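Before a colleague's protein record goes any further, I have to sign it off. My question to you is simply how this chain folds and whether the tokens agree. I do not need a full report, just your reasoning and any doubts. This is what I was given:
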Amino acid sequence: MEVKEAIIKAKSNNQIAFNFLLDTFWNDVYGFQLKRTKNEIDAEDITIQTFSKAFDKINTYKEEYTFKTWLITISKNIHIDLVRKQKKIIRNSSKGNDHKYLDIVDDSPTPEDKIITEQNLANLLRDIKKLKPHYQEVINLRYFQELSYKEISQELNESMNNVKVKLLRAKKLLAEIITKA
């Protein structure tokens, strides 16, 4: 599949086209954000948000621009918005606060440990634990707790497209881990 063909199909909600675009441009967007944020987790989160927003707004894409440039622009704007939001939170939390420090909450998810008796399930869980915690969480919610995309979206307080992109990425990484084993 070519990029132009994938974009046309993606505009018709073709999931294979979305997967193709995600696979084709993930490293470009992630690499761009890694240089900007110098933090793997932030770069990955922004990249997920970028694809989520891009897939949500795919019908606004104009072919006079290259798709990669369009994605990078979305990614850059998301990063700018996040930086502004963080500055605003810090400013607001420091007003009227006599403390010389700010409490920073670590809201990163922790991996869940479960005791499993079946060997195949134990191997799968071992492989899942090789994923980053936020990918472990989305796989757990979808396949072990059997939540819908909407329920996962509410649980994680993220958009449904964000959840879909994160789950797609998690499954791809898990498949790579399993085939290497």
Notes: Residues 67-94 form the longest helix (28 residues). The domain at 3-94 is CATH 1.10.1740.10 (Rna Polymerase Sigma Factor; Chain: A). DSSP finds eight helices and no strands in the chain. The two ends are 29 Å apart (CA to CA).
